[in-house]
Amino acid sequence: MKKIIILVVILLFNLVQAQNFKLVDQAIENAIKDSVFPGAAILVGTSDKILYKNAYGHYTYDPSSPKVKNNSIFDLASVTKAFGTNFCVMKLVDEGRLDIQKPVAFYLPKFGVNGKEKVKVVDLLIHESGLPPYYTPMECESREHILDTIKTLPLSYETNSKMVYSCLNFVTTMMVIESIIKEPMYKCYEQNFTGPLHMTRTMSTPPDKIKKECVPTTPELQGVVHDPLARGLNGLSGNAGLFSTTEDLAKLCQLLLNGGTYDGERYLKEETIKKFTKRYSEHTSRAIGFDTRSGEHPSSGQYFNEGTYGHLGYTGTSIWIDPVRDLFVIFLTNRVYPDDTASISSTRPKVYDAVILSLEK
Questions:
Q1: Predicted TM-score (pTM) of this structure
Q2: With 71 labelled, which of 40, 107, 114, 277 sits at a CA distance of 20 to 30 A?
Q3: What share of the chain is helix, strand, coil (3-state, %, to 5)?
């Protein structure tokens, strides 16, 4: 009898929770009907609890394809920069092994050519380095050749004269990290975060047995990174390449909101998080490794507070964290499926607005 009562209570709680976030469900379901993306997952939480999570649609527009679940694995694209690479940066800063105010060439001597001698690590993290926005590898170009080419590229504009978002900044950041730890960056990430946090469905190169649980980004790419540069680097890159779930990513969001601790264990220093998550300069929206809420029509909608930080991903992923509200929202989709023609720009703010309206009604 006791088990039955507990089960009824859980069912009633889930029913009330679903009703509370009906606006969120409607916004996402409408986007699926409009073919913005075939599938999505969302998770809403605070520093100490999960308020809502749900999954929508299918892996593809074929209704017979697998349904998206709360633990379905998404290609995070550039969310990798903030919630992968940048976590390794913060850890090395905490340990005193990385000084982001030092020139990149201090860590990567081959980088210090073609006018890049004075580019600092922090310039990479705020996208003011002067590096070109992107590098598209040639077919069959080796990982080593790609990295060596990026190291020696000339600047495309004067450092700190403006902000130009560049994937090369975070590939270079990965190389800086690896020069310090003397092993691939993903091992630093596993050892310090995904391993101890039991983020078992977060990885850079999903094994074959896991690929079928990854939401595809094209008819040919399932469990293989969508970004061409990261794919050229065998899926192990600083700009993209992470695969994860809303449930795993929630642990990182709670860690940030709790000043570096999760489940009683400390992973990062509180002062480091505060330093990295606030806007770095007046002429850019970038924080150190994160983006912040900005513009007249921010992707986080109209209700999140100033001081909100997070990142977007090209495949249709996004995470925004509002420390004033003690709130985070993880919204993952595969909007690039099947042919990268759908735009999610108008859907994102609708979803984030629906979250706040659901909480405040």
A1: 0.94
A2: 277
A3: 40, 15, 50
In one letter, which amino acid is 71?
N
In this structure, which amino acid lies at residue 252?
L
Stretches where the chain sits below pLDDT 50 are 5-16
Whose tokens are 């069912």? That residue is 11
Burial, 295: exposed, middle or buried (Cβ in 10 Å; 0-12, 13-18, 19+)? exposed
Amino acid at 8: V
CATH architecture of residue range(s) 2-360: 3-Layer(aba) Sandwich (3.40)
Question: What's the pLDDT tens digit per position in 39-74?
Answer: 999 999 999 999 999 999 999 999 999 999 999 999
Predicted local confidence at residue 3, as pLDDT: 53
Instruction: Answer whether 332's CB lies under 8 Å from 316's CB.
Output: yes
Query: What is the pLDDT at residue 294?
Result: 85
Asked whether 68 and 246 are in contact (CB, 8 A), the reply is no
Q: Which residues, at least 6 apart from 283, have a Cβ–Cβ distance to it below 8 Å?
A: 162, 163
DSSP letter at 67 equals B
Q: Is the peptide bond before 63 cis (omega within 30 degrees of 0)?
A: no
- The terminus-to-terminus CA distance of the chain in angstroms comes to 35
